[in-house]
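Bench notes, afternoon.
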Amino acid sequence: MPIILLIIALVALKYFEVWKFAQLSWWWITGTMGVAFLWFEFLEPMLGLDKRKAHNVDEQRRKDRVKKAFEDLQKRK
């Protein structure tokens, strides 16, 4: 995600011609976009980072369900 924020910032600074970013070539920004594309499409799935995030979300849902079930059980007693 930080690389996406960097790209947005670079595009805005270049477009509004802020400071030294006015002379920055669009190729640097395009290159950064290419790196982001390669990361999100190839490297992240290859390293399993996308599955790890999904697994963490599922694990948190399971913990919340168990906690709620125990709370409901305590209320019944």
